[in-house]
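Exercise 7. Predict the joint structure of the components listed below.
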Amino acid sequence: MENTRVRFAPSPTGELHIGGVRTALFNWLFTRNRGGRMILRIDDTDKQRSSPVFLDTIIRSMQWLGLNWDEGPQIETEGGQDSYFQSERQAIYEEEAQRLLDEKKAYYCFCTAEELQAEKERQRRVKQPPRYSGRCRNLTSAEREKLKEDNSFVIRLLMPQEGTTVVRDLIRGEVTFDHTNFDDFIIVRSDGLPTYNFASVVDDYKMGITHVIRAEEHLSNTPRQQILAQRLGYNIPQYAHVPMILAPDHSKLSKRHGATSVQEYRKMGILPEALINYLALLGWSPGDDREIMTIEEMIELFSLEKVSRNPAIFDLDKLIWLNGHYLRTMELQTIAERARPFFQENAEIWATCRESRLEIEDVIDLVRDRVKTLREIVDASTYFYLEDFSYDEKGTKKHFRKGTGDILKKVAEVLEQTEPFTADVIKKELQRLSKELKISPAKINLPVRLAVTGRTMGPDLFDIISLLGKEKVLARFKKVEELFFKEPNGV
RNA sequence: GGCCCCUUCGUCUAAUCGGUGAGGACACCAGCCUUUCAAGCUGGCAGCAGGGGUUCAAAUCCCCUAGGGGUCACCA
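Solution:
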């Protein structure tokens, strides 16, 4: 087997998008499956929109997800490229552009943006496809030199006027394009920088890329790139165009549909394991009924043949479900580490967290079955750390009734005597009390839960009581008595 | 508008060379479990875009129509 080399080439003009990561993931799974190499290249030829801030967040997103690369930024590679930033590879593009110019495969174009705009308008009015006329194709060298003196120019590739180009796509099969659809596209902009189509083709070749796996939106560009590669005398890589990810309304995924960037999902409390697993399932399936897979399984099972051809709709519900699954099945230690930053965000909780003897692990162990994100873990844990929580209004109406005060008083008496203060013993004691008072366990447990946590739902009550400890629990009973049951003539 | 891609439950998908009661998962509903809420378990609802062919037999092959998406930038 050839040495597989794939690349993921984001442009640092925004956060790492959910569609982008899926593409990165498929590249990564593919090359890891074949023992190949993953190259991270930064396509920053758009000087205006590129920013180091975005570069930073893209790299951090990749690292967070564990999508590592063998060549690219932050990696020293023996025998690798001098740079994996297109902005630092200008000399290469200039050389290749000059070669095309010398061989008359490309030419200078002096048309202004206004002229081209007007041309397109005209074509649109007569319902013609917008194409460049090729006006500057046949300038004489004298004309050209004269124009170059005081006009800006771009370089265009001379495209064939007839014939067809066939793209052999690993996912879609052979796709044929008629050359009459193409006009002479720009390969070097007026500022001297290469366009995407040009830089990408040059770099894919210079970097020895064997498989170009990218989003379907690039399929229409591929014949242009193949022709360009041919003009440059390059071998073309194999192509695979993966389907796009769409929003629930079938439109392109955008901010108005909710979170679109990896960082947003991280901040929501999504685990990288869950995001990876979910994304892998979006447009790919292992062929059997498996849904939950380790990264090793995914690597082993991945193949481009199993990638679907139709666009997939992003289903947040399923991602959340997977996240819940990982939350309750992964190592408690790991979950605690991942949850810690979310606790730290809440200064008040974090302060008590640190001085409290309540281990965060113990709390998480109790609540993680009931939540779906890391962020929700904190919400579900507040009453373990804070004393001034409020009491659920509906709950108090329902469970704090006449006579409840007496019951709570009895419970408090029992708990005071309970030793050891473990969930098992507490449970037995309260069961005994319920028999003794001839009332159902619910009549005791529901008001007790409300008194201790302020809520009507949550983890096992006896676990909560035991974990909080006798002192805190009794104090909370006392507080409830004063807040709800203190009347002049007693209850 | 031209060109290109796509079309199985609401959503993600499975179904070796055409022969299946069209399978799984999320969501939804019901039951079980139970001190609450979850989780878990069990069951249920729900699909081959439409129309023509080819064939003994079509989700699967061919054609047409419709719908969705992409592209036609000095953005990638």
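Discussion. The first strand of chain A starts at residue 5 and ends at 8.
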